Amino acid sequence: MSDSITKNSVPINLSIAVRPNKLEAVPALLQDITLGVNALTSGGTVDREDLLTKCRFLLRALETPRQTMVNHLWAQIGSISAITFGVDCGLWRLMTENGDNPQKVNDLASALKIDHALLQIGEDEYCSTNYTKALSLPEIGHAYLALIPEMSAAPFKFHEYCRERGWKNPTDSKDTPLMYAYNTKKDVYAWLREVNHDGHFNDYIGAYSFGRLPWMDPTIYPVKDRLITGADNNRGKPFLVDVGANLGHDMIKFTRYFPECPGRLILQDLPEVVSEIRGMDPSIEIMSHDFFTEQPVKDTGAYWEETGMDMIMMTVCASEERTTKGWHELLEKKMGLKIIKIWKAPNRGTEGVIECELA
């Protein structure tokens, strides 16, 4: 058997599959990690996340392409399958209730009334970790039940969708990879309404910002300087509209940051979503609204709407997470707005706040 393959006349030596991905980067990464550990003792979330990123880079540099492939196709998929199984059958909740003592497979299986062979993957005894304890929380565990069965087929079948359409970028909201993967004519929002019977997706949205600074934090966007100072103090005038707000997680945080902001605070989402809201701060108005239709609230101080990651947006919505140039193209050339400034969140990759006004 040849030790190389040829594609388009470019020879590739097969040994590349078992060589580290980027061994030459390891010394510098180790130095950065050592410095990061020292900074972590006096730092906060930003330092920890930066250190975590460097550790991931180190892992990728040390792995061989074969190890990376096995991790993607076996370890990660197998882990997600096991985690989702544990959430659905109540395993993580039971282990958390049992405390930190070692727990035997047979005891867990008997209590859950499931085949002990489904839990037996190694030694017969397990202990909880912070991760498995967190999986007992609806906001963490239910995320697996929401995204894996209800949305994951879209990115996994994305290549099939593109092949059948001549490898064109999906831009038609009536023909998305999610519709193709699940054989439905419903867009992602209608699809989630149909399959999200237990509110799992709402729980996931609630957990998305755990441990993260909200957009209105002064280190991300200076709300006081940009929106409050000089604002009309007419309490009857809309001040902030949260479009597609789900159960109001961001708006609740906003009232904690700025309890005396001028004007009305309006939370908008679909009727079936806002109907699930309970115990909302009375200063926040709840309004049913489909953001694909005309905005009923006019002359407001600010609108807030959030998007997600690039491949997920492309495969479930036929939309995208844009570059700075892409946002200027969309908002200024196509929507008639003027971008005042893009406020980047510290250590959050592509996340930030785009401040716009009417052109």
From TrEMBL:
Q: At the top level of its lineage, which domain of life is listed? A: Eukaryota
Q: Which InterPro entries match?
A: SAM-dependent_MTases_sf
Can you say what this protein is called? O-methyltransferase domain-containing protein
Q: What is the lineage of its organism?
A: Eukaryota, Fungi, Dikarya, Ascomycota, Pezizomycotina
